[in-house]
Amino acid sequence: MDRGTKAAVLVTGGAGFIGAHTAKALYDRGYLPVVYDSLSSGFREAVRWGPLVHGDIRDARTLSDAMAEHDVKAVIHFAGLIEVGRSTVKPDLFWEHNVAGTVSLLGAMRERGVGRLVFSSSAAVYGQGGRGALETIPENAPKAPASPYGDTKLACEWMIEAQCRAYGLTGVALRYFNAAGADASGQIGEAHEPETHLIPLAIAAALGDGKPLTVFGADFDTPDGTCLRDYIHVSDLADAHVAALEADLPAGAYEAANVGTGQGASVLEVVEAVGRAVGRPVPHSIGPRRAGDPPSLVANPGRARELLGWGATRSSLDQIVADALRWESQPSYGAGVRGKRKASVPVR
C-alpha cells in the first residue's frame, strides 16, 4: 500500500495495548488511524490519533459502514480475545469472537473493496515451539497450537490465506511473541484488566502495588531453569505493522512473518531487570511448573527482515523495562489503571 496524506486505515482493536501503539505509529507516518473497538477490554483514553468507531468485530454491517464513511484503504486487525487460560475453559467464546469476527471483517472488506489486511497473529500457532528447546522458531516450524486461543489464530491465518487466493486480497500475518514496554512519550502503555503479563506485574510487585510474583518452574532445560521468552518492544511491534502495510506485495499475495528479536530472556532475568530499574528487588517465589508451558519460545526474525525490511531497534530488556516503568509510575492514566488491576493473577 502506498502511503498517502491521511489515507485511512481501519485498526480493529485499536483501543488495546498493541493496537493503540500501532495507531500512533500510523499517525506519525501520515495515515489516519480509524479505531474500531467495542471497548470491552480497550480504553477510550488510548484513542488519541484518529476517530473511534464503537462496534463489535462480529458486526459486519457496522464494519462495512465504518469503512465507507472513512474511505478506508486498508485494515490492521487486532480485535479478539487473547487470554490463553480463559480459552481452555470457554473455547466457543474464542471461536465466536476471533474466527467468526474475522469472517465478518473479511466480508465487509470484500463489500467495500478494501484489498489490504495485516493480521495480528501469534507465536501460539507453534504450540510447544516445534524444534529443539533452545532453538529459534522459523515460520516453517510445525503448527501445533496448545490452546484454543492458538487454534483460533491459526484458523484465521488459513482463512485469510484462502481469501487472498480466492478474491485477490493482499494479506500479511505477523506472528509475534511477547509484546512489552510502552511508548517512550509516556502517552500510552500496557493496561489490561486484569493484568496477566510478567513485566507490568513485576513492576507492580516491586513498587508495592501488587502481590509478590510466583515464578512457575525453575527446573526447565534453560540456563537458569526458568522459561525463556522473546520480548519485543511494543513500539518496534507497531512499526512492523506499518512496514507490513507498506510492503511491496502483489494482489493475492499472502505472507506470514515472525516479529521478535531472536534473543530470549528468562523469567528470572526479567525479574532482575525490573529490580535494577525500580531500585529494589522484586518480591517473588518459585512455584511448580504450569501444564503446557514450553521451556523456550524465541523467534527467528529473518523473514521479517527480508520481507518487510524491519528489525527491532528498541527491544533490549533494559529499554523495555525502563519505558514500562515510566508508564506505570506516572500519576495519571497509567497509575490509575494499574491500581484497578487484580495483581494476584498468575504470571504468564
Give an overview in words.
It is a single chain. With 348 residues, the protein is of the alpha/beta class. It has a domain at 8-180 and 232-259: Rossmann fold (3-Layer(aba) Sandwich), CATH 3.40.50.720. Helix content is 38%, strand content 17%. The protein is built from 11 helices and 14 strands. It has helices at 17-28, 60-69, 84-89, 91-112, 148-167, 198-207, 234-246, 267-278, 302-308, 317-329, 333-340, and strands at 8-12, 32-37, 52-54, 72-77, 116-122, 170-176, 178-180, 213-216, 228-229, 231-233, 254-259, 265-266, 284-287, 296-297. The strands form 4 sheets. The chain has a 7-stranded parallel β-sheet, with helices on both faces. Strands 12-9-14 form a 3-stranded mixed β-sheet. It has a two-stranded parallel sheet with strand order 7-10. The two termini are 36 Å apart. The relative contact order is 0.15.
Quickly name the level 1 CATH class of the domain at 8-180 and 232-259. Alpha Beta
The CATH superfamily of the domain at 8-180 and 232-259 appears as NAD(P)-binding Rossmann-like Domain
The gross shape turns out to be globular
Q: Kindly report the spatial arrangement of strands forming the biggest sheet.
A: 3-2-1-4-5-6-11
Counting helices, strands and paired strands, the structural category is alpha/beta
Please give the largest β-sheet: 7 strands, parallel
Mean of pLDDT: 90
Number of continuous helical runs: 11
Strand content: 15-25%
The parts where pLDDT drops under 50 for at least 5 residues are: 333-348
Span from first to last CA? Answer: 36 Å
CATH topology of the domain at 8-180 and 232-259: Rossmann fold
From the 3D coordinates, which CATH architecture of the domain at 8-180 and 232-259 would you assign?
A: 3-Layer(aba) Sandwich
